[in-house]
Amino acid sequence: MSRRHRRPFGEWLALAFGAVAATVFLTLAVQKADQDARLLHAEHTATGIVLGFEGDPARVAFVTAEGRRVVAKIDVYSGTRVGDEVPLLYHPDDPSWYAMDTRTHHLPFLLPAIALAGAAVMGGITWHLWRR
Question: Helix, strand or coil for residue 95?
């Protein structure tokens, strides 16, 4: 008579962590890919003023072609300080989310590819632990 193998709590915890991490990585990849895709097709430019920093991203204010004042959190070129002007590319659908410093974004889809690779690795680890 065979006994069923019961998984210890640590394995269940590892499986749950892997599943959650893979989902987070996949969500980030999809969001960033959408942002990059829209910005690649954006033809709207503006000059923004750096208002301040919240950790890594900067708060940048700019005015859209339609005259709308927008504040966006974006990554800016290294060495940029409060009060500096920043050349921006933005998409009119949601310029506070779809905006970027044109000096920093050289490799579109790099971050989504990294996040997707992270999701694949975490999914593989989770699958391996589940199959044990």
Answer: coil
CB atoms within 10 A of CB 73: 15
Q: Enter the tokens of residue 63.
A: 């005015």
Note the pLDDT of residue 1: 43
pTM for this model (two decimals): 0.63
Distance of CA 49 to the CA centre of its chain: 22
- Select from 117, 130, 98, 131 the least CA-distant residue to 22: 117
Distance CA 57, CA 53 (A): 6
User: What is the rounded distance in angstroms from the CA atom of residue 18 to the CA atom of residue 64?
Assistant: 42
Angle between the 9-40 and 110-131 helix axes, to the nearest 10 degrees? 160
- Quick: pLDDT tens for 78-89: 889 999 999 999
Give me 22's structure tokens: 């893979």
